[in-house]
Amino acid sequence: MSGSKTPQAPGPGQPQNVEPERAPAPPRVTTSPALYDQLWELAWGDVQAHGPVHRHTIEQLVRLIRAIPVRSVLDVGCGAGDLLAALHAERRYDLAGADLSEAALTKARARVPSGRFYTLDIQRARLPQSFDLVVSVQVLEHLVDDIAALCNMGAMAKRFVLFSTVLGRMRRSEIRIGHVRNYSVPEIQQKLAAAGLTPIQIRRWGFPFYSPLYRTLVEYLPGGPPLGSMGRLSRGIAHLLYHLYRANWPGRGDIVTVLAAPQPI
Q1: How does pLDDT run across 192-212, given as a tens digit for each residue?
Q2: 3-state secondary structure of 36
Q3: pTM score, whole prediction
Q4: 226-235: long-range contacts (C-beta < 8 A, 24 or more apart)?
Q5: Which of 52, 71, 163, 261 has the smallest CB count inside 10 Å?
């Protein structure tokens, strides 16, 4: 064809045009209660109970909550009640939990009988009650409308909003368990501002043994990271990783905890 040029391969020492690696597109995400019931029954149960990152996150959140002046606490996306059970052992908090999954709420009620529990889609609604602290653990990365969720959390918080989430490149296994996104710190700051929340503390954790080492290497396992019921061997490995993660350097890594305050109206 007239005027067209035939592409030529670059010569030695010349830069090559390499197509950049594209992250896999996340699937269309639904907030169906039935889907979350299924995830809790088949995928998240043992991983939440025995997973080393989840255990460390709960411990860090409890230490942080001890240090701030709160009594009433709402856990949004409370799941099986791991954080609520840890706070219940402190014997100083008025506890409530909310989740979209009735299967998860059934587990949480059994662990914290004195707590109040609500079925709630935090992207679409808020409770009429208010609490000194509204907290969520590894929830926002699963939500399509995370800014709406943060707005609703802030509207229910008298004093503080506290959440943990994930930074960095999205892995394929994270898409399979429902991640819509992973964050960067500037993105979190922008979304806090959009939701009318003022950051007080942003703390990172997990480097180097969880991120990047384990988080990257586990993707090469057949099927990716373990999900569902964990046998004795899997629980033993998780226990060893839990102790290894104690050696992570503070202030670095892809697990982030954010403490914020609602801006006065």
Answers
A1: 999 999 999 999 999 999 999
A2: helix
A3: 0.82
A4: 226/47, 227/42, 227/43, 227/44, 227/47, 227/177, 228/42, 228/43, 228/45, 228/46, 228/47, 229/45, 229/46, 230/46, 230/47, 230/50, 234/46, 234/50, 235/46, 235/50
A5: 71
